[in-house]
Every structure is written in structure tokens, then in C-alpha cells.
């Protein structure tokens, strides 16, 4: 895979390299936060039945970082994520 020209890659390796992720329903990190975005492509996560909104994804254990399924598949080897509880 060619990563260096991928527009989605910024500085995520500083905080996402090798972290543990879990597939789960969207849950806001902070009360009052009704949505979040994929750390790579900025797809929107929200607990709502709206078009173009993701309701599930890969999240850090504290729900602070969210990654959509497509970006997870594209970058799982590069970032060496651990998946599971």
C-alpha cells in the first residue's frame, strides 16, 4: 500500500500508533457532545438515525478517538492496532 500520498494521513501516528480499539456503537466522549468524526476521513459519528451518519465504528477504550471501518481497514497494518476488549 502507498501511504505517503494519502490525504487522510496527518499526524495521527503520534497518538494512534499501536493503541487498542474496540468495535462499538457510538458513544460520545463527553456529555453534551452529540457527535464525533473519524480521525482520518472525518466521516461523522452520531447516535441518530440520519443519512450519512455512522452509528458504529472502531473506538479507543475511552471513546476519545473514532475510526470508520474503511479507514480502519486501510491503516490497520500501518498503525498496528490491537482489536478487542
Task: Give your account of this protein's structure.
- This protein is α+β, with helices and mostly antiparallel strands and 85 residues long.
- It is built from two helices and six strands, in the order αβββββαβ.
- The strands form two sheets. The protein has a four-stranded mixed beta sheet with strand order 5-4-1-6. A two-stranded antiparallel ribbon has the order 2-3.
- 18% of the residues lie in helices and 25% in strands.
- The chain has one domain.
- A hairpin with a 5-residue loop joins β4 and β5.
What is the gist of this entry?
By secondary structure, this protein is α+β, with helices and mostly antiparallel strands. Helix content is 18%, strand content 25%.
Give the arrangement of secondary structure elements.
Elements: H1 13-16, E1 20-25, E2 35-37, E3 44-46, E4 56-60, E5 66-67, H2 69-79, E6 82-83
Parallel strand pairs: 1-6
Antiparallel strand pairs: 1-4, 2-3, 4-5
Q: Note the total helix count.
A: 2
Q: Uncertain runs with pLDDT below 50, 5 residues or more? A: none
Strand content: 15-25%
Q: What is the first-to-last residue Cα distance?
A: 28 Å
Derived structural class: alpha+beta
Radius of gyration over C-alpha positions, nearest whole angstrom: 13 Å
What's the SSE pattern?
A: HEEEEEHE
**Strand line-up across the major sheet:** 5-4-1-6
How would you sum up the major sheet?
A: 4 strands, mixed
